[in-house]
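Dear colleague,

Following up on yesterday's call, I've attached the two folding results inline so they're easy to grep. Please treat them as preliminary; we haven't cross-checked anything against experimental data yet. The first protein's sequence and structure tokens come first.
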Amino acid sequence: MEDDPAMVALVTKLLQVGGYQQITVAETAAAALSACGDSDLVILDHQLPDATGSDLLPRLVARPDPPSVIMVTGQGNEALAAAALRAGAEDYLAKDRHLAELLPQVVERVRRTRALRRAATAVERELVRAERLAAIGEMTVTLHHEINNPLMVALSELEILLGGGTQLDPETRDSVGRARESLLRIRDIVRRAGELRHAQSEEYWGSLRMITLAEERGPVLPHRGRALLWIGDEELARVTGMLLRHAGFSPERVGNVQQLEAVAGRSGVTLVVLSTAGGESVKDAFGEFQPPAGRPWVLVTLVPGDPSQARTAGADKVIAVPFDPATLASEILAAVDARA
């Protein structure tokens, strides 16, 4: 959202180099509101012909699925920057000689932060699904206890009747056979309920829905071993754990050096992920922890800022935070494969 043609050309070029192809330019606040639609990112000039960026920002972030907004102004103004951040902007840049250098970095960071938020939303959905599955598991125990035993007795009686020990006329035999098929169907439903791994539902009647018990066979992931996570931030830990679980690892959180050293010494551990808080070294961030020489597992550290500047005390892989959820697993798998 910019009315200066030279600035529009510069920003458009920088975004295209960064991989953005669907770019819409709006010269006024009114045009911006109608054009942004389902945009993921809005670069908002503070000075527009019909409004200021500060006036427009609250209307953008109040949308049901708001875009990430980077505010740009003609001059550095700390008060304006603070106000923009409080109002919901992701970042703030001045139109100075550093803009061409800083804009791609800020855009990439905002993109990764947005992707992490979406991944966190997926984690919350998984937690809800896990709770539903736990409830289903409890109901399954009841089904097996209350239904399965009498069901087996009834099936056994029908098998005796159909086995020839009792003389049945053709009509009765057909009826008993249909009863047997119905009981076998009930048995299969109870079995599928016990094997259910996805709490998916479908419309039943009116506003009512029912759990789908159709047999499903999802892709079988290779088991890549246990992954120990020492990550203090809850959201970052949940997202990292979900991504690693989808890649075939069995993630497990640890909270202190004694627990990490005890668990890391057991068989099956192939990965340890540590997250530092402020770019300090692993030794500074995690106290007495020292990655042992000859360890069978890969050490990955998640650090804020530029990973090339981080001091990592022997980490096999250093990944910047916010990381890209789309590539985190592949980066870690590459480090694991390289060590194998």
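Below is the second protein, in the same order (sequence, then structure):
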Amino acid sequence: MNQVVVSLGSNVIPQENIQRARQILATRYDVCRESDFVWTKPVDCPPGSPDFINGVVLLRTSLQLDFLKQELRCIERWMERELTCLSRGSRGIDLDIVVWNGEVVDTDFYRRAFLRELTLSVLPDLSF
């Protein structure tokens, strides 16, 4: 089984979309732990973009990395289709693989302190 940290972020109906994404992930994968979910300011978004809710989940899956990425993109597209008129900088849901089997695979881990802190809250023995 592969051990994976997946980040979740939303700034469009964020409480609802984060909760929904957490439920979808829990039905498809073995979710071992979840971080707190925190409000963050938008990064690399147009001025005036709404704040985000961000968090991470630690899960186990038998899927290989590329297949899991494809599934996460499918979840994103499915959830976004239900929202009308997303503006640039707005995300109904954003799902990214941060850590794959103990290896950091998302450079945002190093650039965003909140992501590093959330990740370490579910995977405290991570060496990077």
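For the second protein, one point worth flagging: The chain has four helices and six strands.

Best wishes,
A.L.
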